[in-house]
Amino acid sequence: MSRADATKARILQAATDEFATYGIAGARVDRIAKAAAANKNLIYVYFCNKEQLFDAVLDANVTHGLDSVPFTPDDLPEYAGQIFDYCQQHPEVIRLATWHRMERGDQDPAGMSPAREAKLAALAAAQKNSGAGSDFSPTALLTFVLSLALTWTPSNVANMPASPTESAADRRRAIVDAVRHLL
Prior knowledge:
With 183 residues, the protein is mainly alpha-helical. Helix content is 73%, strand content 0%. It is built from nine helices and no strands. It has helices at residues 3-26, 29-36, 40-47, 50-68, 76-89, 91-104, 112-130, 138-149, 168-182. The radius of gyration is 19 Å and the shape is elongated.
């Protein structure tokens, strides 16, 4: 890895932490540069401005998430469980997506539309083949599955704290069962 690539990687990691904590409006390029041990001007050289840096951070995290959690339209309960697992391991992704939604409205993050369209097409084919979840459109079904998978994330306003006796494994099991019942 070249020095430039290493610097970009440090900037992206520092920016991920900063944007996940403060959002686009609250993030400060000075703090990102300090945390990355990089010259502030390099951020502008590599990313032009704070908004494009946020886009790069969101794209890197969304792409990683899409690559890490394969879509399984024939096993939506397990897919929901894997989304839950991923979000437990990468809470910054949910925070970044929440900031994106709050600060940019319904605008799709780069790369999301083609991925979503591919999932909807695969889901429609699976519904046609198995009949599972066919009471719902593919869009509604995918929305329900993702909503259930994200039930215990901090961005969910209906999020109820887990009981002291309820583990992450218990919550995952509940999500998988709920999706199974939905189908």
